[in-house]
Batch of 2 targets.
Target 1
Amino acid sequence: MAERESASLTIESNAIRHLDRLDRGVRTRFEDFQSKFCWNMHTPGLRLKPLKGHKGLWSARITDDYRAVMCRIGNAHFALIAVLHRSEVYERIEERYDMAVNRVTGALEVVDHSDVQAAVSDAKRPVEAAAPAAPKPRPDTPRPGLFDPFSDKELLDLGIAEPLMPSVREIRTDQQLLDFIGVAPRLTAEILFALNDGQSLQQVEELVTAPVKADEPIDTDDLQTAIERPASMVTSSDKAVSAMLERGFEAWRVWPHPAQRKIIDRTFKGPARVSGGPGTGKTVVALHRAARLAKDLDPSQGRLLFTTFTKNLAADLDSKLTLLLDDGERKPTDVEHLDRVVYRLAVESGRKLGKLLGEAELERWWEELCLEQGETEFDAQFLYREWTEVICAQLLISRTEYFKARRVKRPRRLGREQRARIWELVERFNARLAEAEAWCWPQLRASVAIAEENRSSGGAHRYRHIVIDEAQDLTPAHWRLLRALAPEAPDDLFIAGDPFQRIYGQPVTLGRLGVNIVGRSTRLTLNYRTTREILRSALAIEADAVADDLDGDRDSLAGYRSVMSGERPAFRPQANAEAELAEIVRQVRAWTAENPPGAVAVAVPSRRMVEQIVERLNSEGVGAGALSKERQLGEDIVHVGTMHRLKGLEYRYMLISGIGAQYFPSDRIKKLADTDPQRYELELDKVRNLLFVATTRARDEVVFTWTGEPSPLLHLVGDR
């Protein structure tokens, strides 16, 4: 009996296309094969053997009919590159595959020439039936190739996979290019797409090649080193692959882009940030970085906190992080939304928390205080905002501190006497809260942050590493708390966010809050979720917008792009509210006729509209549910929610409704144009970002509906 020999099996991204084509039964057997192979690659039933005619390729049995095709990297290290029917395994195998080390990135790349030739060949394209026509004269010269203007050297220097150069020269139409992009190594696909989109060689070098270029000399014969480089599209996580096969855990989540992998694996000397538009993989980077830090964490140095702004996103991050960590790899780690951390720390400190006050109740309490004190110079809304956005946000605990405080983007200039009067009112308001044992989030965040700053000044910190997703929506008090929770050390804070998706709070400058990210910022520009057509409409929404980049500078969406193509967004005005509801039902039925209901979402501006649409869909026999903080919806019903609630989620199909000028922006925001112009601009930016976020939730199609005049923000989309 052969001695047991464990093996390492790496899954190359090319293999996922083969696994996706298999029925569920074979995919389930693949998981069993993966486990057996790693435990003992000489298990008799696996029949591991080298393939004749191709140096380095081996095959092993998954089922009676299917075989794993692998490249042997080392003595007991294999890379899965394909899963084929046994009749295909020996079919011209010596010509079908190339395993090459990219001379620019140093990555291992697999080229399947069979798929590539099918992509660039016109023979495979269906011909529509038509009446016979007179034959056209054959042209004297063939149609030029899309990439004829570029020399082989120019393309190879950018990082085109060398074995693909002959096929690249055969690409003569946009459709051939789109088919080719679907089967080529990712870097090659991105380069060709960018060049065909009109970018210069220099622009492609800067945007596409430079972020993934290897820093050291490349040995193109060293497969072992190649597969370990960040640029190689591989994974060895059994749980991640299993989840992907069972639940559609997208391949781009399992195989981070080489540019993302560099960020994931890098050691930063201090706080670091990754930014980028929706669908560029910021959350993927945060997930994989949290997984890497969890694997390497020394529990004696503290815990890992993986946090975000909302409860739903935190639950989603927790489940996905579990998929990326094998048993025993998850060291002491907390995955919580940040206000949950705030609440927990307050309770642990012994604070008694009675009634929670929302924004409407707080404003009413301020109105009552103004009446009691005979206050006429400042109204209740101004005082509420001054208290939350200046005093609580900046953790001000004395009149002296308030006199010196900056009031960025706050209306009215305040003199010393005015600030003294406001501070007196604030003290009275705080006393009322304490007497009633009532509390609110702005004040609780501030008090917990102050307590943690005092605690950390003595060298006590609760966490060694903190990873933050959706960072753009955090308040200054949140940032002061985060800075106090971890010591200033390498890899202390990692921040993922997009200022164009800020839909809460106000812009912040991290440097002023003790979080210095200068020289440690990276921007992602490649969208993995949204088609070019949808992306073009989304970019039109933000065309005239600017955004603070969390560090005092301006951010932009320059270079933001997608390599996917699909249907153009549809714009469907309706005569009245009843007609709009009928159109929603009709469109949702069309989508769910061929797709799971959970692949479809409807987004609207208000909760009232959510209730109306859910009721109408259900009454028409279309199962639907409302998204909420407390409720996780399954794949068996259509998801309906406010644009705020759709944040961080994604769907194949999106229907964005109720966005006529009458409702979007809301009357509350419109009134600010006269009473508080600065705040009006800030709130209008949030509404613009909200529509941008909702539009980019869609992967395949998005439809807009409204009654009356369209929202001026939607009008921008139609003009572009």
Note: Confidence is low (pLDDT under 50) at residues 123-134.
Target 2
Amino acid sequence: MPDLLLELFSEEIPARMQRQAADDLKRLVTNALVDRNLLYEGAQAFVTPRRVTLHVVGLPAAQPASREERKGPRVGAPEAAIRGFLKSAGLARIEDASIEKDPKKGEFYVAIIEKPGSSTKDALAEILPAIVRAFPWPKSMRWGAASVRPDPLRWVRPLRGILCTLATPHDVAEIVPFDLVGLASGDVTWGHRFMAPAPITVRRYDDYADALQKAKVVLDADRRKAIILADAKSLAFAQGLELIEDERLLEEVAGLVEWPVVLMGEFEPAFLDIPPEVIRATIRANQKCFVLKDADGNLANKFILVSNLVASDDGAAIAAGNGRVVRARLSDARHFWLTDLADLPDYKDKGKPLDQRLAKLEALGIVFHEKLGTQAERIERIESLARELAPKIGADVELAARAAKLAKADLVTEMVGEFPELQGLMGRYYALAQGEEPSVAHATEEHYKPQGPNDRIPTAPISIAVALADKLDTLGSFWTIDEKPTGSKDPYALRRAALGVIRIVLENGLRLPLTGPLNAAIWGALLDIEFAREDQAGSVVQSLERRGFPKGPELEEVVGAFTRAARRSPAPDDARLRETTTSLLAFFADRLKVYLRDKGARHDLIDAVFALPGQDDLLMIVWRVEALGRLLDTEDGKNLLAGYRRAANILRAEERHDGAGAFNRAHDPARLVLPAEKDLADVLAAAGAAARERVGREDFEGAMRALAALRAPVDAFFLDVTVNADDLALRLNRLRLLGELRDAMHAVADFSRVAG
């Protein structure tokens, strides 16, 4: 059984595209083989910076022969029908067809079409060119003289060679022949660009892998990663240091080299005065190098680099050259750091350095979103929200407001301009440097968290207030302009923001009803949208001018103060505001279901609790869901649910005739006849009152236990009592009793939403 070896050799493939390219090649080729009934035993794809390789083992020598019976017209059919049948079946004359009889349809012609299977080699020669031409690179290019053709070959970088052989263990390998715009397949590959540039002729995969290893190419990307990691750790250990591991960087570097050689470089200890995160970002982003730490956990003034060749001087010149570049980059970083700590010449009168950056941000008019105004306006909204949230979570109001005001100030610093991934973190460093309260400084960093399901959450009250304000403003603002997630599209990461709110609230055990903060967030956005519209029309300015305010900065300050005051005022009872808040609460319900489902909770129990009116306290919802789940895990709970469903079904059926709410009045105790209905009425009165009382003091476990007492009388009622009695008064009274049972259970959860 032959094996396929396919290599597509090109100029440098970007590291970020390599893994996906290997997966795509394997998927496309193997799917095409299966579609041709060429079943195989296994397939493996490899990738280096200059090649994508596929090895498929256990292919058949040829496609299996096919046999098809094609039914034709009836015997005696018109000549035109006969000719059409002969043409479609590939027959020369009608006598070559057989005749079959059908008891109902009579005699008709049948053609037996037998086709020998194509050889695997021929099938591959047809399959592979189409796959290469349509390969799904995120970005591709055309090159050379062939680029002007109507159908130029496109590849991520110029394609230089195609190796494609089909070989059995003991026979000579055959080239699978095909041509792509003058580039013909063959049995030649190339080794390392510098250390083994000569062409290499190969027959099968074993020859290929061995030849590349000798030609200084490590074909397997995972093996390259393992070599880099092991050698880096060993080299660091020999110097009494420890490697700071970085999986993303390791994956990237393994995609930059074919023959990894690990070296160590260094820079002057004086640069260690820069924040360690800046040093790491500089070395990582600019040089693709790994940083090291000493035995005390402090950053060392040495780093690990990975070369793509074995140098005659054991890499001394390469390490020295990288050291020079790193020193230059760190000099730039130190300049950014010192510049950001200093005053801005044009804004010295605006306070501390971060306050000066805020003034610059406002002066530049940096837009947050075209419909939502500037970053400066957004900062004011977040500050107002932080003031409202702070008392509810035990945070100092003024410190929370200060942290919210400074949270985005580092966006216009030199360092964040160079390394955007350091936003927030640099805000903390700069806030501490200018003497802010530590809680304020840490909140400027932590307000972005959590940025994913595995990221840590803020736990300090000031940080919580600002993080919630930031995320609620984002959600309220984009909901106000009707920019909501749709399907898989979520360009503003609103799902992540909602999940962040949920995690912060639940994992910190916060009692925080969401309706008020959401109203405030949406109201703030509505105000900014409205004032922007009015300001564009000039109506605000004109109105103030008529009141005697002169044009100029003073007037702009009055408009700003008026907007801020309005933003801090309580949200009015506005229809659009109510509608937007209701929609956003429903979105939180969906996100909470996802969060709890990932934790093992049942989504139907979440629905049962959310169906009750006024459910906007996330922590209380979770407590109810957990208590409801524990009740339904017991036999009493399961049987009570069955009794509830029977009662609800009876009521639903009768309400179709008598109208909704027909049985909402209390039953008449004097009309209770049978012991079972009297017992149910007595237990229901006590259990219903107890459940409601315990729900009122948020003892949901106690409320569920109170409901569990209904199990036995409900079972007995349905065993002994006929609800739809002939006596209409008796029937009405029993239906009202069941209505009371339904209402008592709905005080705890909407049991109609419970599945199973």
Note: The chain has a mean pLDDT of 89.
